Amino acid sequence: MTAAPRMPAAARAVRAGDRRALARLISQVENRDRSAEPTLRALYPFAGHATIVGLTGPLGVGKSSLVNALLRHLRAQDHTVGVIGVDPSSPFSGGSVLGDRIRIDRDPADSGIFFRSMASRGHAGGLAASTREVTRLLDAFGMDVVLVETAGSGQVDVEVGRVASTNVVVLVPHLGDEVQSLKAGLFEIADIFCVNKADLPGADGAARYLSELAGLTPRSDAWRPKVVQASAVNGTGIEALWSAVEAHESYLKTSGQDRALLRERIRDEVLDLYRDRLLTEATDRLERSPELDALVTAVEERSLDPRSAAERLYRGRSAGRGG
Amino acid sequence: MARESRTSPIRVLIAKPGLDGHDRGAKVVARALRDAGMEVIYAGLRQTPEDIVESALEEDVDLIGLSILSGAHMVLFPRVLALLKKRKAGRVPVFAGGIIPDEDARRLRRLGVKAIFGPGATLEEIVRTARSIARPRP
Ligand SMILES: Nc1nc2c(ncn2[C@@H]2O[C@H](COP(=O)(O)OP(=O)(O)OP(=O)(O)O)[C@@H](O)[C@H]2O)c(=O)[nH]1
Ligand SMILES: [Mg+2]
Questions:
Q1: What is the pLDDT of residue A58?
Q2: Percentage of chain A exceeding pLDDT 70
Q3: Shared domain check, A216 and A294
Q4: Higher-scoring residue by pLDDT: A4, A152
Q5: pTM
Q6: Is the residue at A1 inside a domain?
Q7: Does A13 lie in the same domain as A53?
């Protein structure tokens, strides 16, 4: 191994268990503060050990309540847990009310838990753009498990499928027609279905129905989604839910899927970052170019069509490259 | 990019310490702050000072708003302020809403509570004050 370059102070603080340093770093990541990049780079090698579990499902099905119950269960087994609770930002004001914390009842002195709320900040799919990176920070901080609760904006959010290694789709009894109308992709990302509020009537039927549907839905791997019933308020079924998560995690390992998945995600992420960079750079340059104005005028006067205008910009960009 | 102080939204924790059981007022304030573009972490009812301070630190908030009706403000507020100091977060400003007698309000201000809103305060006033006292980003 080559000698490690000196770690930035913030990275050392996070590794040493400094909760405020972690909290501040998360804010920097959320705010896309580029001055945090050396710290993120230094922390990257320390991540990769946590089990990342996604909890998604429609509004109000009890995702946060399940997080609360899981926290209790996991802490009793001495697992440390990071939680990210995502809620939508208002498209009008950009503001947000982040309410997932309301359901969390924990000892505030317990340093084995770190809970962070995130606003989606315009990102679609139930996560914020920086959720993946924040997951990684909680991982590098040393959390054994990271639970990610999606925004639950009426539909099932499937993007968490690209962040978590085990995904729990939370539903409630009497879902009948609702399941049909849930976003396509739901069955592809659900490693586990959790019928929460099983203290209410109809849970058995719902669970049976989900098992049938899950059996009929083709997957790209050999995992057969498990269906568990739980009641977050009574605390029943929580053990079974966590066992199902563990079963899926061990399936990933024994099948070698975990490595394949990791590779695929790293590829996605590198490409995403590259695309971001290209796009920002290209757009920045364009917005300063007088050529754009001239082309817009030409299109406005209908002497040129939009597609041809874009084509000229594109060719101009390639030509400008040499200089 | 978003390195300048306020291109990022203000993060504010709204919580209700004490044992009285309704939070309509706190929710109304939370929504008003959201509509003013802030990210409001709503922690809900019956929060102990320890809960509040831990939430404020984990969420890295720029501001804490506490609503209280139970009359225990002279115990709870000083405790929150002391805990913040102890955790080296004494710079996170705290504002209060509720029914607080003038004499108590004066004492709380001296202790460091930045603003106190009685039942007659308008939402505009609260939003404006919140914006002006929120901790700027480094
Ligand atoms: N009967 C019953 N009610 C539950 C159960 N779990 C949660 N609830 C209730 O369902 C409501 C919503 O619970 P949350 O945990 O906030 O649900 P959520 O899915 O996180 O909600 P959002 O984050 O807003 O989408 C609350 O009133 C809970 O008390 C359960 O197991 N049984
Ligand atoms: Mg929730």
A1: 85
A2: 92
A3: no
A4: A152
A5: 0.92
A6: no
A7: no
Q: Which of 3.20.20.70, 3.40.50.1950, 3.40.50.280, 1.20.1250.20 would CATH assign to domain B10-131?
A: 3.40.50.280
My answer on whether A96 and A146 are in the same domain is: yes
In angstroms, what is the span from residue A76 Cα to ligand 2's centroid? 22
Q: What is the mean pLDDT of residues A66-79?
A: 98
Chain A residues in contact with B30 (beta carbon < 8 A): 97
Across A150-301, the runs of DSSP E, i.e. the strands, are: 166-171, 192-195, 226-229
Taking contacts as CB-CB distances below 8 angstroms, the residues of chain A near B7 are 31
The range of the structural domain enclosing residue A278 comes to 266-322
Domain residue ranges of chain B, discontinuous segments joined by +: 10-131
How many structural domains comprise chain A? Answer: 3
Nearest ligand to the C-alpha atom of residue A126: 1
What average pLDDT score do residues A20-26 get?
97
Contacts of A91 in chain B (CB under 8 A): none
Does A2 reside within a domain?
no
For the record, the structure tokens of B96 come out as 């209060």
Q: Are residues A20 and A63 in the same domain?
A: no
Which tens digits make up the pLDDT trace of A152-171? 755 556 788 889 999 999 99
Q: Name the residue with higher pLDDT: A249 or A175.
A: A249
What percent of chain B is predicted at pLDDT more than 90? Answer: 75
Please check whether residues A183 and A88 belong to one and the same domain.
yes
Q: Residue A232: CB within 6 Å of ligand 1?
A: yes
One-letter identity of residue A17: G
Does ligand 1 lie within 6 Å of residue A126's CB atom? no
Q: How confident is the model at residue A250 (pLDDT cuts 50, 70, 90)?
A: very high
In contact, A45 and A156? CB cutoff 8 Å: no
Calculate the dihedral angle through the C-alpha atoms of A102, A113, A170, A93, rounding to the nearest 10 degrees. 50
Residue in chain B closest to A36 (alpha carbons) equals B3
Position A51 pLDDT exceeds 90: yes
Buried/exposed code over A102-125 (b: 16+ C-beta within 10 A; e: otherwise): bbbebebeeebbbbbbbbbbebeb
C-alpha span between A177 and A288 (Å, rounded) = 52
From the CB of A68, is ligand 1 less than 6 Å away?
no
Nearest to A96 by CA among B6, B10, B92, B59: B10
Between B32 and A220, where is the model more confident? B32
Q: Are residues A92 and A16 in the same domain?
A: no
CATH number for the domain that contains residue A89: 3.40.50.300
